[in-house]
């Protein structure tokens, strides 16, 4: 791939020298394929290709520098080059940060050059915008970032610029002001550029350039994120408001709608700058936004109008809650607050009660009740009180929750808005009655029950509203929030776990009693607990950033209590499997395998328990669980392990308890619980007692893992293999046993791993952790004993070939091989070969990947330790019988080569110095014969056979060495 790229770059330079435009464009297309449409390469290979592309003498940057002198001739080629840069930034943004010092100067030079056509300059500005958007251009990646705004200012001194270029430059400067405010050395000058461009266009009646005006408004919106005018700068705020107000007038006949959307977006983002102006002109804004914008047939216009309407209503509520803000309006008479409040509350109630209202109008009414909750409490004489608003919202929520999801229909999509309004109303509530708390609980449980019906776009709103609601309830004090959380999580998790199991299984087989016309109920058969993970995981993630620091701990406490309560209430008892004999009596069956012999008394409880275990893994103990959530497990380690170890010993056939202890132990190890506590207090009785309990449980689980069958054995083996090394050392350094228990575990795991490679991977990772452990490390004799006994178990994986997947073969490549005489272009041949290489890389089997892991593990061992992978035959016969497995290495060798005899197989070499080194091959003959006969990898077998053939030829010719000196 790198050689292909170098060839393309040389061709690009040749096209530049020979003024070949079509060829240069085709070369850039080829480079785009190599950089963007590439195979799964390593970051190192991609980084090397980008280095060649951007910094080599024949690279893209060098081509742009030389082409600017004849920019009009190479205009299309320069456009393609900048498009390639944009695609590269999008595809490989993490690798381009360090290359900004090379890219930015050439891009700025193109923007500043008046001899370059307009379109390449526009694309150059977009390259910088993409660099900011994808995080490539940063203060640490480009040291001259503070000079960038000044270099862009100089472009406006060139006179009249193309409209699209102006738009891109305005947006670029706005992005610089928003993302790098410290780099803006002259914010007043930048603001004046935006304001003068916008006001100059607005002074003209027909808006001659809506494109550049849209860029100026968008840049101003981004600029105000850090450089908003202060409260004392009323004149500037007035100028901004007049611009926005003029652009807010609805005119659907305009073809260019972006400028008007940008104006409303500025209002939605910075409505707090125009609070008093919006209140004084509330009739105008209500008419424009609610009467025109949100009723547009254009979805983009409607969404922008809704955002601006919510911001506008929020500022009206802010004035109504704080009438002192109107004291600054001395020139105009302010509308009475009571009249304004009653007007908007009446508007919301009319929308909510209207049978013909659209969905977005109902959402406006629902969220409006939450927005006006504060004014309803503070303004005297309001038509409704805070309790009235709360009652209306709760009644509507209960009306939705009492129906089924199928009968509710589209009303269920309004539930997140009701929750958000409820959370805002609760912000101003002084206390909640028992009836109201029950209503909140009913609403939340119903939301969890039907959560999988709601679209993904509503998930963020639901989680945010629930966290806000819990924060507001926590302000009431007492144990109100804890009781509500316990009730919600208990019922909600039960609902989550009553759905189908997440394990892959075939659809249920229809019985003769089933209706053949009945369809599969996806809500019952295809929904699992995984559909609820966005709710539970989002609840914990959102609580981490909540203003109430105790909320996360309260939610975690409720999760743990729910887990304990549900496990206690579930009936996991079993009974003997029975059958009906000829006399009609029930008799018990007897099997050696408990998986067949026993059946659960309550299968539904087992169903819930399996889902509960997997839900706990994904939410509390999974790899995606945040570190702050994991650390909360510290206070629950003792009750967690004591409870589940006891229940696991009481029900040794239930593998779910083993999984619970495994994930808890993994979390404790991840947060460094045992290691930290040992450093602080080596004699801490709490930690010591937990370790003793876990070591005892490990011993019992190892015995189960060696003698159990089926899924229980797999669960026990995985628990032992994933346990912390400090707990496994007692079973590795067992001097009372000739073969420690961990050796038996590894033998069982690797034996099962021949059919289930995931188990072999876990065993290899456990062996690697034990060998690398240093607190304290294994003794030399124990390390040697462990490796001598375990390493031979890996040999069968190395000499096995995955016969289930033949090597990938491209049909196009096979056709090409059959028709070699066809007139095929060289570029097409390279593409076919590249596709073949991609297919072979993508089809790497799981076994090959595991073999590579074994080789990497062996590379970290000493050379003499690697030799223990192959058991010496002489050592097998003279060594202890326990060193070889049952039937594993007891087979006699295929060769009868006696290495101790007087005859020896030697390979004599000639050297210039006269020395004749002698290499003895006796020790490897038996091994080569074994590989030639037993290895299932065809390539290895052929190599072994060729080596044997070579040795035989050498033996035949060694006797003629003196006579045929020229040959031997």
UniProtKB/TrEMBL annotation:
InterPro entries: ARM-like (IPR011989), ARM-type_fold (IPR016024), DNA-PKcs_N (IPR046804). Residues 53-861 form the DNA-PKcs N-terminal domain. Pfam families: DNA-PKcs_N. This is DNA-PKcs N-terminal domain-containing protein. It comes from Anopheles stephensi.
